[in-house]
Amino acid sequence: MDEVEVVVAHSERATLRVGDVFLKVDGDQARLDAEVEAMSLATVPTPEVLWCKPHVLALAALPGTTLGRLGGPSTGSPAAWAAAGTAIRKLHEAPLPPRTGGAGRSIDALATELDTECEALVTNGLLPADLVTRNRQVAEAALRPWIPAFTHGDLQIAHVFVDGEEVTGIIDWSEAGRGDPLHDLATFTLGHEQRLGDVLAGYGADVDLEVIRAWWSLRSLLVVRWLSGHGFDPFAPGCEVDVLRSRM
Question: Fewer beta carbons within 10 Å, N or C terminal of the chain?
Answer without folding.
Answer: N
